[in-house]
Amino acid sequence: PILYSYFRSSCSWRVRIALALKGISYDLVPVNLIKDGGQQFSAEFKALNPMQQVPALKIDGVTLSQSLAIINYLEETHPNPRLLPQDPKKRAQVRMIADHIVSGIQPLQNLNVLKQMGEKKMEWAQNCITSGFQALEQILQHTSGRYCVGDEISMADLCLVPQVYNAERFKVDMGPYPTIIRINKALLELEAFKISHPSRQPDTPAELRA
């Protein structure tokens, strides 16, 4: 497999965690979203992913984009360890939390949107993440055990950790979200989350390396 990734892309990080958890080795091709006006806009990368976004994964003779689509494929082809619970209600909760982050928070504070916001980009990102985290905190108080849904790592956890990293980058006050903080801390102790961290990627700038 070949993963097209950017060290700080939260969508790419989700997929790196999934690959690490499932023990799938891969080659990484960095796509710098800032350099050269954004390498994702090159004709070469557009041919790979017409949406001009990372991640993209070449695997089993197919090229996939969109992090949850990739993770779902990995789940179906490499079912152990599972990232979706067997219980239908818990499975729905995992998907709900993942969608909450992937659709309801992250795109609103993504690079493309922030470019449009000019000087207000920090304030905009903080507002988007804060409103999303207020809801997420309430949800997790009902669903969580050690992790987002019960005590098993799930797709929801793969979405949570990169979003907390974004919140910290944008200097969001995390004080009101003790459940999010607790789960995030527990997840960051796991090897798959450590090795996939933005501070430990081949394309991480020297000043941001762990």
UniProtKB/TrEMBL annotation:
Database matches in PROSITE patterns: GST_CTER, GST_NTER
Pfam families linked to this entry: GST_C_3, GST_N_2
Domain GST N-terminal: 1-82
Domain of life: Eukaryota
Sample GO molecular function, one term: glutathione transferase activity
Broad class of the protein's primary localization: cytoplasm
Pathway connected to this protein: Amino-acid degradation; L-phenylalanine degradation; acetoacetate and fumarate from L-phenylalanine: step 5/6
Entry GO CC: mitochondrion
UniProt key word Coiled coil: no
Reaction equation(s) it catalyzes: RX + glutathione = an S-substituted glutathione + a halide anion + H(+); 4-maleylacetoacetate = 4-fumarylacetoacetate
Keyword Hydrolase annotated: no
GO process terms (BP): glutathione metabolic process; L-phenylalanine catabolic process; L-tyrosine catabolic process
Cellular compartments annotated: Cytoplasm
PANTHER family noted in UniProt: MALEYLACETOACETATE ISOMERASE
Name of the molecule in the record: Maleylacetoacetate isomerase
